[in-house]
C-alpha cells in the first residue's frame, strides 16, 4: 500500500462533512457532566451567561460560545477556554472529518483543517478569528494525537497482520491499514524509542493536570494581580497544596529561581518571559518551536521580537520622561527670566517717569479749552465726499 506522506487520504464520507454537527462523533469519549460558566452570543448580538457542558455545545443553534483569550500569550483562558478544550477533544475523534492516517499534524491538508475550523466556528465565537485560528488548530492537532495514541494503545497486537485485523469499530478500513502500516515501520519505532527516552528525562512534572498553562497562568494573574514570570510559574506549578514540592530536584531549582528573583527585584514586572530571564539562567536557552512554562503558541523567535519591542518601549519611555523633566526645567527658567525682565522694565519705566517729571513738570491733560479756535464745520461748507 503506497501513501503520500505529504497529505492524508480523503475520507469516503465527504457529504457528511457539510452537514450540521449536532451531536458528538461516535468515537467521542463520554465527558463528565461538568458545567462551565460561559457566555453565549446569538445572531442578533445578544449576550447571555450560562452554565453549559461540552455535550450541550453540540446542540447549540443560532448561538455560539464566546471564547476569551489572554492578550499576552494569545491562549484561551477561563471557563470558556476549558470548555473549548474539552469540546475539541470530542471533535478530534471524528475520523470522517479528521482522518488518523497522517504522519505529522503539519502535513495534514489545508482543506481538512479548514473544514474543521468551519465546524469550530459554528459553535464558538472569536473576537479575531484570523488571529485565534492558529492557536485553536494547534490545540486540535494535540487532541488528534491523543486520539491516535488511545486507538493504538487499545488495539495494537504483536504483529502487523493481527493489528490490522483488530480494527476499531467506526474507523474506516483504509485509514486503519495505513495507520498501522506506518506504526510498524522501523523509522516510527526508532522515533518512539527516542520519545520514550526523552520522556524519562522529565523528572519534574507539573501539577496542572489537564488544565492548560494559559488557564493556570491566568488564575495566578487574577490571584496576584500581575502576570507571573516563567520562574514564578515553575514554582507555582511544582508546588503541592500543602506547600511541598513534587520532588527534591524541583525544590532545588525553585530555591535557585527564588534567589534570582530576589536579586532581580528591580526588573520590569508583568513580562511573562524573556530570553535572558531567571528561568533561562537556571534551565538554559530555549529550543526552536516552543517556550517552556508558557504554553502553546509563543515561540523563541516571537519572544525575541517582543523582547526587542519591550526594550524599545522601556527606553522610549525613559527618554520621554527625561525630555519631560528637561522641558519642565526650561519652562521654570523661562518663567523666572520673564518675571525678572518684567521687574526690570517696571523699575526702569518708573525711573524714566520720575526724571521726565523733574525736567518738564506736570503736563495737564489736553482739553478743548487749551485748543486753538477752530472754524465751525457748518461755515466750512459741505466739503467733498
Task: Please characterize this protein's 3D structure.
This protein folds into two domains: 14-200, no CATH class; 213-303, no CATH class. Helices cover 51% and strands 5% of the residues. The termini are far apart. Helix 4 (110-121) packs across helix 5 (129-155) and helix 10 (230-237) packs antiparallel against helix 11. It is built from 13 helices and four strands. A hairpin with a 4-residue loop joins strand 1 (36-42) and strand 2. Strands 2-1-3-4 form a four-stranded mixed beta sheet. It is mainly α.
Summary tags:
385 residues, mainly alpha, 2 domains, 4-stranded mixed β-sheet, 13 helices, extended, disordered N terminus, disordered C terminus, Probable_transposase_24
Can you give me a brief rundown of this structure?
By secondary structure, the chain is mostly helical. It has two domains: 14-200, no CATH class; 213-303, no CATH class. The protein is built from 13 helices and four strands.
